[in-house]
Design goal:
It contains five helices and six strands. It has about 200 residues and is of the alpha/beta class. The chain has one domain: Maf protein, CATH 3.90.950. It has a six-stranded mixed sheet with strand order 2-1-3-4-5-6, with helices on both faces. Strand 1, helix 1 and strand 2 form a beta-alpha-beta unit. Helix 1 crosses helix 5 and helix 4 packs across helix 5. It is globular.
Amino acid sequence: MNQLIFASKNRGKIHEVRNIFSGSGLNITSLLDLNDNLVIEENEKTFEANAIKKANVVFDKYRIPVIADDSGIEVEQLNGIPGVYSARYAGENAADEENNQKLISELKNYPEPHTARYVCFAVFFNGKNYLTESGEIKGEIIMSGRGTNGFGYDPFFVPEGYTQTMAELSPEEKNMISHRAKAFNQLKMKIGFLKEKL
């Protein structure tokens, strides 16, 4: 079990996850690498359920062990919104900029700080075993974006204890503290233990 399919076509996510798994002996192939135009409707009510759904659909198609995730940002003043709708907050196929602008416009009537957290649920599925992990990072939303690294809401999210936004951090720094790094590093360890048993 050295080959894994990552159920994603998001270039930013793929790059981050490949870095996390580098040196693990596991080869990560994404849906982008496979030129797969598979559309998986993320219509579940939780990040975890969406991640499991993606893993199931992709495993059913390829019969190769799959890793998948669902992640997003939850803003306290908006009662956890956008949450599972983070990638399509401004509508289906909305660009990052459109989602960010909608979020900023929603927060204009609230006092600062706009506390928020990034959340990620990661899952592994090999047709028999499910392994799941989660990660989060707390911080706040700023009203004017900064930085060109990262993707999604990164230019508007300042992690707790930092003055830079996620988009101002280097990819290496982000991959040390991010919600996705926390979830997938823990998942990588669990996959390693599972490999030893098989």
